Amino acid sequence: MNLEKTTDEEKVNVCRLYTNPVGFLFLPFAWVINIVWFYKYAFTTPPFQGQAEIKKYVIRSAIGTIIFLIAFIIWNVEFQRNRQSWGAIGDTLSFVIPKGA
Amino acid sequence: METNNEKKWNSVMITVLYSRIDYVFGIWYKPKVCYLVIVINEVAHGQTVNKLVYRDITSFNYCVRYTNKNHSIGCTSKYWRNVGVLHLVESFSDMNKLATSKLDIDYVPLMTPKLFNLDNVNFLMSKRKIAGIIILGANDTASDDKEIPDGMYVDNSQYQSCKRIEWNPHGSGMLYKSFDFPIFRVYMEDDIQRLKQCYLKHNMPTSKGELIYPLCAVQMGDFMFTPSNTEVCMRRNIAGSLTSGGFCDPLGDSNVWSTLYPMNNPLKERELIIAAAQLDSISQFYNFAPGTDNDASGFITLLSAAYALGKAKNSNKLTKPKKPIMFAFFQGESWDYIGSSRMDWPANITLKNIGQFLELRQVGLEDEKSLWAHFDPSSGDKSRNDAFFAALVKAGTGAGVNISKASNDLPLPPASVQRFLRKDSGLSGLVLTDHKKNFTNAYYNSHYDSLNQVMDKLSSQGLRDPNSLSKHLTRLATTVARTLYMLASDSNPTPDLSKITADEDMTSELLHCFLQNASCTLFQQVVSNSNAKNLPSSAYPRMVGVSQSPNQVTNLTNHLMMYFTGNQLADVTKQSNCKSNTSDNSAYNYLWFQGQDFKNVCYRGTVYYSPAVSPAFLLKDYKSKNYSTWAESRWQSVDLKMFLVPNPSLQTHVSSDYIRRYYRLCCTCHMCGC
């Protein structure tokens, strides 16, 4: 899809769709794509009908991305640190189990 | 050969090229320049850099990792191998020098066997970072096993406290320690000299006590996959099976058991007579457990006794005795009695049927010029025990073996029969050993328990004949065979024991085959002609191994028992016909092998395998209190390489271990030429 050629109304629809529900599907990649695609229309282009809405969705996507990344990093650090002591659960959650003690 | 390698080692090409480029570009560009040099050299000379930098040491035994329910024992290196600077330790002063060295680097002590004991290793570990240990050759010293091997008395408060016996006072328990570095034993004189020379040339301190780079170092690779204990390991075997492969395998193999005559009738209570021995041994080094006195003396005696009885039976000199005689060879006994704790009896036998159980353990030597019969003080019927001992002494007197009874209040020494007595204390268990109390053999479960060592010990006991061991075991085999027959015939009819005599040639052939050369005539006779070519000209290792790969010692024992106690079927001339046909008694087993005249024959007999994998692994109870939980780690490669290590300041700006490896390799090219 070429965003330059779509109507403003359609842009708002796509942006809303990419925030929710598509955004929750490929955490956080769809949100990041949403931000990249619509940043220009939300903040730099001259005002148009629906820009406020696009701005709202882009900001929500950004907040979602940050929250998700923080949660993901915290989980990852905790998992790597505690995988051994979690015993059976740690092993079940691991895809590749390192060799040795 | 040596000079040629010396040339490669000191490659002039690399030195000249490298030192010039080094001069122009300075230290920062070294890695890249070095790779360039490597490429040029590869193209120009067609020899790999690996060969230029590293000297492979190939003749070594290594220590691997085992786990049980609580912990792991043995050795492992890091994933990227361990590297340490060599330090020769031939005396206590060398050890002190190493302990007080001012350089903060990892060391690999090159130790003589005499100094390699737990106290010294602990001392060095407390003072220095030890990256590994290399033991030079092997001549003497101590037992690796702990002082009191575990048995039936684990939960017995009486024998755990005041009556506890230190069976193995020579034991250091080193075998059951866990080391986070590799321990190798280098045994070829060439390799030993190479290591020593490299140390003497590069690592001798100057008059001021300083070491000058490059230093001679070794890289030891011995990385073990297994985690901290068997439970975790078995869990990860499943959880990581797709992506990580296996981590460890349960120890185990098969037991071999056979009966002298087919056992068709249902057995009466306390009727069965069993003679047993263990088939395996251990030491600190993987697949290097000569166990001459420990297990070989026992199971070879038992095989020789089976030969004597089988020969007498097949030449129709024997009348079939009233009671059945069974031979049992247990595998994995060194690892908390794997074989005997598993023993699956055929449907018509329960423990209640066992009357007498004669076990041979460490019977190669003598204590006070006698062998010693041990009974459990609290089990068995008094009169049956006494009759058992009397029969053994009578047979021993006839064959020229002194047998005495060990003190009544002693518990049983480590023995398979303990596993049966635990479940049924009604049977009479007799353990025949060469020690009155403490082990006579100072090398219990150690790699020093070799044939030569046992011969030396025998000659120090006054038996100077080179055949002393086979003579001794033959007399004992006669004793065992006659005892079994006497017990089985219950003195009715009065047996003519002189017809049962073990053959000294057979005993010495068995010793030769099992301890020196597996491609001997006897082994050739009991395998098929295609397998005969695969018999190695060295001894088969007698560590139990893992259950997935069959142990050759078990196989050969099974075949030998068939050869000794079975019958040749003269009318079967094809391998495909060598199996039971419908009219036959299905209790028989059949084997096709070369036979006495190497003509391929079919044997039929009552010889069987039974699984010897600990019940703990069947029950998936990896914290089992009752059964062995020992498992062996998996590993990929084990190697030992010698090289010259440059000043660490040349390496410090490269942080990643991985890059440092290659960087070191580069630096070393330069240093090799120095």
UniProtKB/TrEMBL annotation, chain A:
Per the record, the similarity remark reads: Belongs to the PEN-2 family.
Query: What organism is the protein native to?
Result: Trichoplax adhaerens
**Key word ATP-binding present:** no
Would you say which domain of life the source belongs to?
Eukaryota
PANTHER family per UniProt? GAMMA-SECRETASE SUBUNIT PEN-2
Which protein is depicted?
Gamma-secretase subunit PEN-2
Ranges in coiled-coil conformation: none
Mind listing the GO biological process terms from this record? Notch signaling pathway
From TrEMBL, chain B:
Q: What is the scientific name of the source organism? A: Trichoplax adhaerens
**Keyword field:** Glycoprotein, Membrane, Notch signaling pathway, Signal, Transmembrane, Transmembrane helix
Show the Gene3D superfamilies listed in the entry: Zn peptidases (3.40.630.10)
Q: Which residue range or ranges hold the Nicastrin small lobe domain?
A: 63-226
Q: What is the lineage of its organism?
A: Eukaryota, Metazoa, Placozoa, Uniplacotomia, Trichoplacea
The UniProt entry's GO CC annotations, sorted and at most eight, read: plasma membrane
Superkingdom of the source?
Answer: Eukaryota
Q: What's the protein's topology in the membrane?
A: Single-pass type I membrane protein
Compartment(s): Membrane
Stated family: Belongs to the nicastrin family.
What the entry lists under Pfam families is as follows: Ncstrn_small, Nicastrin
Q: What is this protein called?
A: Nicastrin
Any one biological process term the GO annotation gives: Notch signaling pathway
